[in-house]
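Subgroup meeting minutes
Present: P.N., E.W., G.H.
Scribe: E.W.

1. P.N. recapped why we're keeping a running log of single-chain structure predictions: easier to compare across weeks, and new members can see raw inputs and outputs side by side.
2. G.H. added today's entry (248 aa).
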Amino acid sequence: MRIDSAGWTHVGRRSHNEDAWAVRADLGLFVVADGLGGYEGGEVASRCVVDTFSGFCERVTHDPDATWPHRLRPSRSREEDLLFNCTWLAQRAVLSRRVGKLREMGSTVVALAFGARSAAVAHVGDSRLYRLRDGQLEALTRDHSILEEMRQAGVETPERRESPYGHLITRALGTDAAEPTVQRLEVRAGDVYLLCSDGLYEPLGPKRLAARLGQGSAAGVAETLVEEAYAAGGHDNITAVVVDVRAG
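Output recorded in log:
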């Protein structure tokens, strides 16, 4: 299989962009982070997270004997372990910089890693991973949020945009609650993956996401999705990373 991938971002209707992203097809790594903490803080946190993921993946790719912070677990694939360790290191990196005017900063993250035989996703917060397969769109992550916890408890809730709890997340890097959810993925040729911040999926919704994914190159789709989210009234920063898996 071969991968066509690209990312795109837009400040939206905010004064600055606290989203960061990485497309590292050479490492099989794709990341979106949405910073928290206001001007400068959010930007620093999200960039710190993305750089940490990229840096650790580079290190272990180029040095097979490099030390991992946490031992590999037999129950997890290499990609699951890789993303778990990246998240742990990103948490440490953000915490170490939470001083002075950056003391309130934090970040969400969603990351996708491909290996020779499998893939994995890790996330903290409400940045998401979607997969389009055989024309069906599926959210592969479940938000770490109060709204999602209410839904899991069986409470009937309005749509995210209409709920007073819509943007209240329960986990973020840089806080005491930063445990990632990590899971293995089975990948097929024809799959299209979308990593995105809430500024993208909230104004568009699943139907519009599904209608665009797979319709052209990854670069064209990523740019189109971001532009459509802005045109739909998106207020927040808007970021999309598209990963199109094709037969080799």
